[in-house]
């Protein structure tokens, strides 16, 4: 995947920063940068002679991250790189200006580092940030953008690892963490927590929080009705419930899904709701179809049998389902390759399609709001003379259904990379079609089901006359 740089900020601020080229090293290469989430780790407080240690420290962080679910299951969806940015001196600043400890809690230091890593930021001893008070007077953020733009512009997320054994870290656009350890908890856990914010749109689950940080999100809501809450599909499973942030005041009206998630306590695992949110973002960013063959027009009458192959990015364990259809009829399931012979084809145009979706149990698909589907379609022109040509196209589809359950109106939102329309059929459990709807690309359509009896219905989704997904909806 490629990160879209904030060009206006870059042009206004970064032009004033001299561009530098540093050594870039690959820690983990799973695939092409355009087909993976690219995590980039920058060094700060490492002198030139210490950059080999930075490689070791960054590798340790990467291994810690990918030992945790759901990153462990989706490890091959990521590339990891480091940019070796040398500092003039080792460590980080300790101004001794924190308000939450008796200073000096650490020896007062003023260290010349490239990204100005500074403890005591905003008055908190363990808040390690590249500014001390938010004034951004040293233009460090522009320096970070500049280093990324000139050394690895196709990043998706960057973070900064600081060469200090004092525990500390911070979040924001570019999370920062030291190498420190407190009570057996590594400061790099802060960076993993902060990636939950900056890359995966998760909210903090601890209290106290300023009111400005509260909003509806994957793991935060003001809704307390079990039938309407966004994580209703997980209630009663793996400790998921509806827990208030506090017993009184503003926070008492906001709820989190779990009492012991990493978004609340470091060194804890992500809860089921946050895992689901992370996986959904991975599905947004990366198609599980890495490549396929044939991938371009084929002429000159290829000989039979003709082989069709998927190269997939498999989760661990592999939870990808593959459905193959030929001319809208099921051909085979859950294989990565098929072969066609003459008798499989009809004269004229033939359509071979594979539909791929992730059936991981880390997603609760029955009540999940969004379905991600990935397809490859081959069009095969066949005549008495043989196969004249084969054309192929890949499509990424996102189908969102809400609210579910509903009393009367249900919304369908559709997005796909090939500008197709989506045909929706609502059928009863007896198979009888009750409602139909056509939704265009990037469109949201409403369907009135108020005249249907209360119960469960099946919704089938068709693109180019091929069934790509099915989902249960509940009419209250």
UniProtKB/TrEMBL annotation:
InterPro entries: MetalloPept_cat_dom_sf, Peptidase_M64_IgA, Secre_tail. Gene3D superfamilies: Collagenase (Catalytic Domain). The keyword Repeat does not apply. Residues 401-474 form the Secretion system C-terminal sorting domain. Pfam families: Peptidase_M64, Por_Secre_tail. GO terms for molecular function: metallopeptidase activity. Keywords: Signal. This is Por secretion system C-terminal sorting domain-containing protein.
